[in-house]
Amino acid sequence: MTRLVKDLMSTNCVTATMLDNVYELAVLMKDHDIGFVPIVDGQKLIGIVTDRDLVVRGYAEKHSGSTAVSEVITTDIRTIDAQTTVDDAARIMADHQIRRLPVVQDGNLVGIVSIGDLAVREIFVNEAGDALSSISQQHGGEIQLHTVH
């Protein structure tokens, strides 16, 4: 039986809007122990902000906590729909070196699927491992995993 993303995606997504600022996103990430926040207008997915975005485009550029989301948002993002197979989702993650995929329906955010969802639920564990290995960078024969807590 083919498993679909809808069977394992997280649907209780923590989101923010373009009216939020960098500080508010950092607090959301801290309070919910996440490193990824979808930015929505109503339910429509506009983009995402990761903890890396906050550092690289925000704080490392000496922007203050009151800096607008528009300064750190990533809008060129990959998405999938809930009917995507788990195998295809793992392949997309590996091919594009991404750890989380927003799940959308008619442009509206309906969930998030992550590499952790693939591995923790023991669904296509090999594909999840392959995706994580592809995302990890190889340095001098050693594989260094870059994880976000």
Summarize the structure.
This protein has 149 residues and is of the alpha+beta class. It is built from five helices and six strands, in the order H-E-E-H-H-E-E-H-H-E-E.
Note down, in words, how this protein is organized:
The chain has 149 residues and is of the alpha+beta class. The chain has one domain: CBS-domain, CATH 3.10.580.10. 32% of the residues lie in helices and 21% in strands. It contains five helices and six strands; from the N terminus they run H-E-E-H-H-E-E-H-H-E-E. The protein has helices at residues 22-32, 51-58, 86-96, 115-120, 125-135, and strands spanning 36-41, 44-50, 100-105, 108-114, 137-139, 142-144. The strands form three sheets. The chain has a two-stranded antiparallel sheet with strand order 1-2. Strands 3-4 form a two-stranded antiparallel ribbon. Strands 5-6 form a two-stranded antiparallel sheet. Strand 1 and strand 2 form a beta hairpin. The chain is elongated. The termini are far apart. Residues 137-149 have low confidence and may be disordered. It comes from Paenibacillus albus. This is CBS domain-containing protein. Residues 9-65, 73-132 form the CBS domain. Keywords: CBS domain. Pfam families: CBS.
